[in-house]
Amino acid sequence: MVSIRSCCKSVLNVIHQLIFEKEGVYLHTNAKRSNQDTTVPGFIRIVERDGEPAMEWSPVEEDARKAPAVFYTKKDGEEGEEETKFDPGYEPDWAVISTVKQQRRQEHPPVRETGQWGSFSLPLSELYSLRRARFSLGRNFLVLTTRGGDPLPPLHFNRGGARELLKAMQRYIRLAPSPMDGRLFLAYPHDSGALSQSFDELHLFDDTSADLVSRFIQDPYATTFGGFSKVTNFFRGALPHTHHESPLSNRSPQDAHCPHPGAELGPRPEVKRGKPLDNWDQFLDPEGRVTDPQKVKELVFRGGIVPSLRREVWKFLLGFYPWNSTTKEREDILRGKTDEYFRMKVQWKSVSEEQEMRNSLFRGYRSLIERDVNRTDRHNSFFSGNENPGLVLLHDVLMTYCMYNFDLGYVQGMSDLLSPLLFVTQNEVESFWCLTGFMDLVHQNFEESQEAMKQQLLHLSILLRALDPELCDYLDSQDSGSLCFCFRWLLIWFKREFSFEDILSLWEVLWTRLPCENFHLLMACFILESQKEELIGSNHDFNSILKHINELTMKLDLQPILCGAEAIYLQLTHCKELPLKVQEVLGLRVPSSSSEESPDSEPKETDTLLTQSETRGASSCQPYNGQTPQRPPPTYP
Q1: C-alpha to C-alpha distance for 421 and 272, rounded to whole angstroms
Q2: CB contact at 8 A, 379 and 430
Q3: How far apart are the first and last CA of the chain?
Q4: Residue 310, C-beta contacts closer than 8 angstroms, at least 6 positions apart
Q5: 3-state SS, one letter per residue, for 282-298
Q6: Rounded to the nearest 10 degrees, what angle do helices 360-373 and 389-404 cross at?
Q7: What is the pLDDT of residues 279-320, one digit of tens each?
């Protein structure tokens, strides 16, 4: 049974060896009845008693009733019966979900129910795991779980010291990332036969970083510009291929005989852009239905849309209007959508100050929106100036979206998605419903788990290795094989990489979902390929690669990139024996349920990424010889 015992200050008088001590470590309690969380200040120590190391926490005062406490309000809806076992009560940012099953209940809870916050002592031999969790107001906590499956009350290091504590712990135990989640660290006894791992390799805490990861989640763009290397270090560690390995670094022996699997793809065809869609009426029947939606999408993909038609066509591309709707039906849809919008707007407009004070989640959304509105595309005349009505519309649409999708609410970056929509439609209602259609495509990018983003980085690495294994090998050698420096590109579809006008052209191309849903990944591949000579020729290391990629913003030429990405697609689809994983990323093959990749299973699945078939190697990828590929590429006008 796990030995977690209540103790008092006198226990420190027992003969022991003090290994580590830190003041200002707050214990996070679970006071649900009062709708307030309490953090109690105290000391954290590592001590040896009779040769057995233990972690101990005790309050500053011997009588915890006299100990000063720091209060902050929890999110609404968390009231309930008080529990002896700690339960955070809300989802933390980047929280690690422990898969440890509770085997036995604690005989003595680590926090007493009498209101006197006692001390706890945990032998390090009974520590199962630790994780870093961030709760509602941005505080970061260290959560320890015992071998019985019971989490201790989280500890907040108000004055730093977490790094030093974990270094002291590593004198007695070894901390290793969980194979299921890179943010969960498992505790093992030191084993002379095991490869030791330095604490610096864990990148778990960095007291000098001012919690860069949390700031990145709250503001991925400002933080990215200021500290991109540290942000990428985090994602590199959070992805399953940690410890300076690329997803493909553990290739099988068969793959070792295919050092350049992309060399036999055949020539890349030349692609030219077409003319923009400039005649909308020719696609409408007498009742206003779009007669050939696929033809419209193909024209938009090849050439975009002239500015005068964007407002109308975008509403079809984003699902505001069905393609088969008549003019009369669209009038009815607009009236209904307008009524629905203003009903939702009234909901948040009618929230009183008193109500808002009791709703920290709503209050947090409003605060984030107000801050972001004041710095979104202010260089654009539609949003420039302090009294610009465009800013009011931007604010109101985002607040209304919170009522439309309160589970997701507002996440920073959504203002970047809305501003071009509002600029083009010049209409509050239409921009809102276009935003909902856009979010239907990318909402997973903004979810707390970030699983969709990790999946996209995996898919990007699959494509890039098939196209340019030499570049991938170089990035691997510089600890950059995870491609996490592309995170911002994929998160908001290159919004910060191109000019505002180019983004209007790019997004309407991507909304067509031609020639495949992952066309934005092909764009990323082309950009990386275009930087190959600079990256390898200048012998860039990990940090300089990040710096170079980040400095590409506003220096990229959109039209050649669109041509290059389409050429890559045609080159890959003309490959006779395209790797199955590449086919799946391009939508040429539906993955079976047993082979669907996930970030957690990535190493196992990417080991055989470039195996062309069960009996053939990479040499089976020959130049296109006229035979029909698995699915023919789309035809364009």
Answers
A1: 27
A2: no
A3: 72
A4: 424, 504, 508
A5: HHECCCCCECCHHHHHH
A6: 150
A7: 999 999 999 999 999 999 999 999 999 999 999 999 999 999
Of 195-199, 362-366, 376-380, 436-440, the poorest mean pLDDT is in 195-199
The answer to whether 465 and 248 have CB atoms below 8 angstroms apart is yes
The secondary structure element, H or E, covering residue 343 is helix 327-349
DSSP code of residue 45: E
Contacts of 336 (CB under 8 A, 6+ apart): none
Cβ neighbours for 386, distance < 8 A, ≥ 6 positions apart: none
> Binning pLDDT at 50, 70 and 90, where does residue 323 land?
very high
DSSP bridge partners of 185? 130, 177
> Which of these, 474, 481, 432, 503, lies nearest to 602 by C-alpha position?
481
Cα–Cα distances (Å) from 280 to 285, 292, 323, in that order, read: 11, 11, 13
CA–CA gap between residue 450 and residue 454 (Å, rounded):
6
Please report which confidence band the pLDDT of residue 245 belongs to, taking 50, 70 and 90 as the band edges.
very low
> 3-class secondary structure for 251-318?
CCHHHHCCCCCCCCCCCCCCCCCCCCECCCHHHECCCCCECCHHHHHHHHHHHCECHHHHHHHHHHHC
| 609 contacts 601 by C-beta, under 8 angstroms | no
- How many other C-beta atoms can be found within 10 angstroms of the C-beta atom of residue 266? 16
In this structure, the dihedral spanned by the alpha carbons of residues 496, 499, 505 and 509, taken in order and rounded to 10 degrees, is -30
The C-alpha angle 572, 577, 579, rounded to 5 degrees, equals 70
Q: Which residues pair with 475 in a beta bridge?
A: none
Contact 10, 46 (CB under 8 A): no
Is the separation of the CB atoms in 458 and 597 below 8 Å? yes
Which of 360-378 are b and which e, b meaning 16 or more Cβ less than 10 Å from the residue's Cβ? bbbbebbebbeebbeebbb
The values of phi and psi at residue 103, to 5°, are -95, -40
Distance of CA 337 to the CA centre of its chain: 31
Asked if residue 556 lies in contact with residue 498, where contact means CB atoms within 8 angstroms, the answer is: yes
Task: Tell me the CA distances in angstroms from 164 to 19, 176, 238, 480, one per residue in order.
Answer: 11, 17, 22, 28
pLDDT tens digits, one per residue of 353-409: 999 999 988 999 999 999 999 989 999 999 988 888 999 999 999 999 999 998 899
Rounded to whole angstroms, what are the CA distances from 284 to 296, 339, 470?
11, 27, 50
Residue appearing with tokens 């649900």: 32
Closest by alpha carbon to 463, among 595, 565, 542, 615?
Answer: 565
What is the arithmetic mean of pLDDT over 535-543?
85
CB 256 within 8 A of CB 615: no
Alpha-carbon distances of 422 from 297, 307, 378, 437, rounded to whole Å: 22, 14, 13, 14
Q: Is the dihedral of CA 153, 157, 161, 163 positive or negative?
A: positive
- For residue 488, give the amino acid letter: R
